[in-house]
Write a structure and sequence with these properties.
Elements: H1 6-15, E1 21-26, E2 29-34, E3 37-43, E4 46-50, H2 56-61, E5 66-71, E6 74-82, H3 91-125
Antiparallel strand pairs: 1-2, 2-3, 3-4, 4-6, 5-6
Length: 127
């Protein structure tokens, strides 16, 4: 992880119109949060935004590459895509993409809560 926060601070500045965004150091990069929802990450001075089934095609159509990392010799793809070219030029260009990412992160979080709730209900109902 770079100790130089220049890129991180620049990205946060562009995202600030969304609300109180913050960066949290993690796994050699940075998680980007609004409130308690992680919707982006920064790795090697590149911003990646959360995608899901509803938003990934739009990012792909804009040429946004997926976030990949290596683990034990395997290449792992995560549900984040690089901010499209030109999106980091100003908040007006980045915010629509960031809003898609925040919506995807909230849907993913809601899906996890629903699965957890179903498991808890099943445990209560089982003999």
């Amino acid at each position: 992880m770079s100790k130089d926060r220049t890129f991180v601070d620049r990205a946060l500045g562009l995202l600030m119109p969304m609300g109180p965004v913050r960066a949290r150091a993690m796994f050699g990069g940075w998680g980007i949060y609004l409130d308690d929802t992680m919707f982006g990450l920064i790795a090697d001075d590149e911003l990646f935004l959360k995608v899901d089934g509803e938003s990934e095609a739009r990012f792909a159509a804009a040429g946004a590459q997926p976030f990949l990392y290596s683990r034990a010799g395997d290449s792992i793809t995560m549900s984040y895509r690089k901010a499209p070219d030109g999106a980091l030029s100003d908040p007006g260009a980045l915010l629509p993409w960031a809003e898609l990412a925040l919506a995807a992160a909230k849907r993913a979080r809601k899906g996890k809560k629903n699965k957890s709730s179903k498991r808890q209900t099943a445990r209560r109902l089982s003999p």
